[in-house]
């Protein structure tokens, strides 16, 4: 009952100033999307838990944040930037904030990392990883194999050559890394925050199709037919280009 009341409160168009949100061990929780702005009194993501922030959320204010070991706050890819304001953060080993872009498919290009502004007033952690890499490109499609030739016949003559394999497709380009703005007080060493902004890897080249086997030879009563040559293998495609790196802006206050 308590969890349902919390979700209804978070789904309200008006941000709730006293909400407490907890994600359990090895659990995944997706925030509702009806409110673009959230104000949480306390947010806890336990060990190996994941909190998914939908693309429609544009601002989150958290008074107290606790990320357990290997816990994640994951931002869904989207064009709308997110502003994350944190008063006091306590972060365990391996925890991260992920704003990575989505992997491309044959139907959709890779998506860039989601732009983010992160403001931290207090941080208790050895390191906090902020992953805003671009999504990797889709691999190229594999070329089709060529059909086999037909064997020679005693009534129609020689065997037919195997058909050539088709060329493989080119890999798709990776997406750009995100634009990230980090605002830190002067007493927090910048080295505690590790930011990854690489562009997504280009998709692998598609393999060429195999050539078809030539028709087999055949011995007949009056004569024999020779076997035919195999078809040529298709050429592999080109690997996709890596996406450009994102941008980091560090602001001290």
Low-confidence runs: 1-17
Overall outline: elongated
Instruction: Give the percentage of residues in beta strands.
Output: 25-35%
By DSSP (H or I, 4+ residues per run), the number of helices equals 1
Q: Identify the strand order in the major beta sheet.
A: 1-3-5-7-9-11-15
The total count of strands amounts to: 15
Overall tally of domains: 1
Distance between the termini: 42 Å
Protein model, in words:
The chain has one domain (2-138, 173-205, 239-252). The chain has 253 residues and is mainly beta. The strands form three sheets. Strands 1-3-5-7-9-11-15 form a seven-stranded parallel β-sheet, with helices on one face. A hairpin with a 4-residue loop joins β13 (218-219) and β14. Helix content is 4%, strand content 32%.
Task: Itemize the secondary structure elements and their pairings.
Layout: H1 2-11, E1 19-23, E2 28-30, E3 37-45, E4 50-53, E5 59-67, E6 72-75, E7 82-91, E8 96-98, E9 116-124, E10 128-131, E11 179-184, E12 193-196, E13 218-219, E14 224-225, E15 247-252
Parallel strand pairs: 1-3, 2-4, 3-5, 4-6, 5-7, 6-8, 7-9, 8-10, 9-11, 10-12, 11-15
Antiparallel strand pairs: 13-14
């Amino acid at each position: 009952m308590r969890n349902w009341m919390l979700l209804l409160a978070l789904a309200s168009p008006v941000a709730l100033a006293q909400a407490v949100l907890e994600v359990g061990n090895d659990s995944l929780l997706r925030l509702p999307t009806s409110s673009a702005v959230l104000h949480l009194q306390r947010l806890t993501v336990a060990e190996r838990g994941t909190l998914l922030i939908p693309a429609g959320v544009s601002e989150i204010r958290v008074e107290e944040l606790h990320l357990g070991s290997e816990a994640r706050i994951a931002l869904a890819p989207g064009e709308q930037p997110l502003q994350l304001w944190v008063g006091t953060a306590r972060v365990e080993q391996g925890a991260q904030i992920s704003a990575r872009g989505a992997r491309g498919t044959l139907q959709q290009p890779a998506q860039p990392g989601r732009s983010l502004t992160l403001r931290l007033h207090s941080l208790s952690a050895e390191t906090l990883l902020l992953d805003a890499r671009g999504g990797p490109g889709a691999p190229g499609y594999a070329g089709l194999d060529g059909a086999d030739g037909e064997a020679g016949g005693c009534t129609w003559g020689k065997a037919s050559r195997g058909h050539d394999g088709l060329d493989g497709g080119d890999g798709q380009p990776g997406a750009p890394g995100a634009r990230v703005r980090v605002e830190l007080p002067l007493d927090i060493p910048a080295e505690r925050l590790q930011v990854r902004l690489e562009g997504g890897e280009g998709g692998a080249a598609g393999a060429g199709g195999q050539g078809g086997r030539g028709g087999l030879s055949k011995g007949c009563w009056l004569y024999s037919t020779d076997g035919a040559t195999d078809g040529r293998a298709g050429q592999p495609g080109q690997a996709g280009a890596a996406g450009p790196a994102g941008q980091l802006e560090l602001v001290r206050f």
